[in-house]
Every structure is written in C-alpha cells, then in structure tokens.
Amino acid sequence: MSPKRKRRGRAPGRPGQGGPRRPLPEGDSFYTPASSPLRRAIERRSAAPLVYLHQAPRWLLPVALTAVLLVGMLVAGPLGALALVVLAAFIAWLCYLSWPRLTMGKRLVRLGLVALVLVGALLQAGIRF
After folding, report:
1. I want to staple 35 with a disulfide (CB 3.0 to 4.6 A). Which of 39, 56, 66, 114 is the partner?
2. Per-residue pLDDT tens digits of the chain, which is 129 residues long
3. Non-local CB neighbours of 107 within 8 Å, separated by 6+ positions
4. The organism sits in which domain of life (predicted)?
5. 10 Å Cβ neighbour count for 11?
6. CA 48/CA 78 separation, integer angstroms
7. Which residues contact 64 (CB under 8 A, 6 or more apart)?
8. Is the dihedral of CA 48, 53, 54, 55 positive or negative?
C-alpha cells in the first residue's frame, strides 16, 4: 500500500496500538459527593478498572460478557454456574457504582437482571425450585 493512501477502518495512531485512547468523561472526580466511607473506598478501588474498561475497545466488553453468558448457559454443572456467578458479580458491581444516579425504575431493572442471572446459576448448579 502506498504511503499516500490511508487505511480505512483503523483509527490513527501508532501501529498495533489500535489508535488513540478515548478521552475520559468530563468531571472533577470519580467519587460520589457526601458518600459513606465504604462507598468511597469501593469507588476508589474501582477507579482503575473503570478507566481500563473505558479505554479498552468499545467492542471488547460486550463480546466478553456475551462469551461468559454463553459459557454459563451452555456448559452444564458447576463451571456454567461459576461463569454466571462471575457475570452477576460484574453486573452487581456496575449497578452499585451507578446506583446514586439511577432512578427507581432503572434500579429495579438492574436488580432484576442480577437476580435472573443468579437464578440461572442456581439452575446450572443443579438446584431446583
């Protein structure tokens, strides 16, 4: 390919780096104002993983979560149940971090999703209701 022609579909940047990183959202802090010491500690510990997830390619998280969900649904027994518990824990972590900004309806949807994934984990583990 000649140097004058630009490659389509790739972001500019150093080769192999996938282009420039997305900028962080505007704001002064990752922390919830006037929060409890426990919440502040969890938010502080979560800051680095959230920045990593924000700077990862946009397709990575949905693909990874879909893969974990498929493993959880298709692999019977404890391994499938473990995959679903990991997925539920990840969703619950994001739910906890976003909780102060959510309306009651959005909170209920997220809690319902976590509960649904955990019920699936129980079923995969062989526990019947």
Report:
1. 39
2. 555 544 444 444 444 455 566 666 666 566 788 889 999 999 999 999 999 999 999 999 999 999 999 999 999 999 999 999 999 999 999 999 999 999 999 999 999 999 999 999 999 999 887
3. 95, 99
4. Bacteria
5. 11
6. 31
7. none
8. positive
pTM here is: 0.76
What is the DSSP track for 47-116? HHHHHHHHHS-TTHHHHHHHHHHHHHHHS-SHHHHHHHHHHHHHHHHHHHHHGGG--HHHHHHHHHHHHH
| Residues 6 or more apart whose Cβ sits within 8 Å of residue 51 | 24
Q: Please give the structure tokens belonging to residue 32.
A: 């919830």
